[in-house]
Amino acid sequence: MNNNPQSDNVLEIRDLSIAYEPGKYAVNGVTASVKRNSITAIMGPSGCGKSTLLRAMNRMHELYPNIETKGDILLDGKSIFSMSVIELRRKVGMVFQRPNPFPNMTIYENVVAGFSLNDIRLKKSQRDEIVENALRNVTLWDEVKESLYRKGTFLSGGQQQRLCVARAIAFNPEVLLLDEPTSALDPIATSKIEDLLGELKKKYTLVLVTHNMSQAARISDDSMFMYLGELVESGRTGTLFTTPKDPRTEAYLTGKFG
Amino acid sequence: MSGDRVTKALLFISSLTILLLSAGIVVSLFGGAVPAFREFGLRFITSSSWNPTAGSEQYGAMSFIAGTVITSILALIICIPMAFSTSLFIAEYYRGTRTAGILRSLVDLLAGIPSIVYGFWGFYALRPLLVATGLTDQGFGVFTASLVLAIMIVPYATSLSAEIISMVPAELKEAAYSLGATRREVIFSVVIPSARSGIIASFILALGRALGETMAVTMLIGNANVIPKGLFAPGNTMASVIANQFGEASGLKMSALIAIGLLLFLITALVNYLGKLIIKRFA
Ligand SMILES: Nc1ncnc2c1ncn2[C@@H]1O[C@H](COP(=O)(O)OP(=O)(O)OP(=O)(O)O)[C@@H](O)[C@H]1O
Ligand SMILES: [Mg+2]
């Protein structure tokens, strides 16, 4: 999906500010970029604006009616605010904190939900192929291939979360946004998801919000540290963790707040 | 005795009172209905004759059962589109806005208007309108009663369905939006399917209301003790016949009325039980 292979950056965030209520900025003047085929972690204490920034990347933040957005985000050089939301969200998928498969749909239907929701009609053989590929990509295929027609909500939490990743990548997006995707999971399920993310970055670009610093250190290539709506520091994860430039980053990394 | 045990005893006594009261109602209904059933047997349910002339007394509940079932179902059919769209409007489309808040309060207000006031409104405002259409001479009959009945149950069904619709988890809707679904697609593919059984239950409970509704219907249905011959023909319902004839009844006729009360109680209880069962499965 590298439409623009000469550019290393999939996403460019330019002086982005977002307010839920007039004058109260949850994200304040953030400028940053996200590299292709990498994992970028967004860290920071609770309420610093991580989710708001992440949700802006596929304009999910616009679901709140009074939201105010300034600045711009470019996807492959094109402003996401000039695209149709539907087109954007197919290119920039999302995985949420709590696994949220559709309870009225089977595992199979959940994977192709993006198509059925958008009234995109596919042949049975095409659908079968998409389902198998997506489930193989999230290493869920062997576990569920016998029960594709059972409800997705029967799966364990970790399996449900992998199903949600499968649902998000069924469209073959460019970017996958993940908002604390493992915070509701046990350590074993968490490590499976982490392994999976390491695999997925070969195909997609991942942006991951996490509270878990060791997770960020383990799996991310780049990191952003946010504080009170501002982007305090960003860079290669190794550098940011070993030699933080800003005292606030250092305080956070050493557990002084958050 | 410690305070804790006193509280426990008091709570136990009041719960027991309620239990005894409901048992008492059922027992006296059964007791009162026995003479009618002994006299007419099952024909009491299947027959539609209603003749109080001394010596050739004949009582059958079928006209009233038909009247109740027809008006209630008709009311439900009229109610469904109104209540369904209003609840979607309040709980989804305009969720959290001022408009939705105002509408919600209005719905609650409508739910609080006493039955007799609806009856008056139906009698003095709605009935002349129907007469003006030329479809009916007097304006009394099944359709008029059903229309007012529908308006009475709309607020009830609306607030129940709105409650259920607003319980659909935001994370499911967000999942659908994040897959590029439009508002309409989210509502029809996620919100309504997730809330479906709850919405159905709201309508069943609304039907339960319509079945037992008395005053407004009595004022508008025409009180003819026959199976209604058409949409604009007069009829009578189980609740209305009791309200109308209770005063001057005695003996076998009184027993027949009580038996109708018992049947109404059983039908309503069954319908409410079904509604609650579905809600429980949903929650
Ligand atoms: N829907 C909303 N309406 C109003 N304010 C909001 C809303 N959502 C978030 N905020 C505010 O915006 C700020 C940033 O919130 P955000 O959810 O982006 O933080 P976060 O870094 O993701 O926090 P956490 O780690 O707790 O998830 C917070 O001050 C929060 O109170
Ligand atoms: Mg968050």
Write a structural description.
The complex is a heterodimer of chains A (258) and B (283). Chain A has 258 residues and is of the alpha/beta class. Chain A has 11 helices and 10 strands. Chain A has helices at residues 50-56, 85-91, 107-111, 113-117, 124-137, 141-144, 157-169, 187-200, 213-219, 237-242, 247-253, and strands at 9-21, 24-35, 39-43, 68-75, 78-79, 92-95, 175-179, 205-209, 222-227, 230-236. Chain A has a 6-stranded mixed sheet with strand order 6-7-8-3-9-10, sandwiched between helices. In chain A, helix 5 packs across helix 7 (157-169) and helix 7 packs parallel to helix 8 (187-200). The termini of chain A are far apart. Chain B has 283 residues and is mainly α. Chain B has a single domain (58-282), classed as MetI-like fold (Orthogonal Bundle). In chain B, 77% of the residues lie in helices and 1% in strands. A two-stranded antiparallel sheet of chain B has the order 1-2. Classes of the chains: A alpha/beta (258), B mainly alpha (283). Chain A binds chain B through residues 58, 60, 63, 65, 85-87, 89-90, 93-94, 96, 98, 100, 102-104, 113-114, 116-119, 164, 167-168, 171, and chain B through 96-97, 169, 171-172, 174-182, 185-186, 189-190, 193-194, 196. The complex binds adenosine-5'-triphosphate and magnesium ion. Magnesium ion binds next to helix 1 of chain A. Adenosine-5'-triphosphate binds at residues 20, 26, 44, 46-52, 64 of chain A.
Notable characteristics:
heterodimer, A: 258 residues, alpha/beta, 4-stranded antiparallel beta sheet, 11 helices, 26% strand, globular, B: 283 residues, mainly alpha, MetI-like fold, two-stranded antiparallel ribbon, binds adenosine-5'-triphosphate, binds magnesium ion
- CATH class category of chain B: Mainly Alpha
- The helix/strand class of chain B is mainly alpha
One letter per element, helices H and strands E, the order of chain B comes to: HHEEHHHHHHHHH
In DSSP terms (H or I, runs of 4 or more residues), the helix count of chain A works out at 11
% residues in beta strands of chain A: 25-35%
Q: What is the CATH-assigned architecture of chain B?
A: Orthogonal Bundle
Tally the beta strands of chain B: 2
CATH fold group of chain B: MetI-like fold
Number of individual domains of chain B: 1
Distance between the termini of chain B: 40 Å
Helix content of chain A: 25-40%
- Average pLDDT of chain A, to the nearest integer? 92
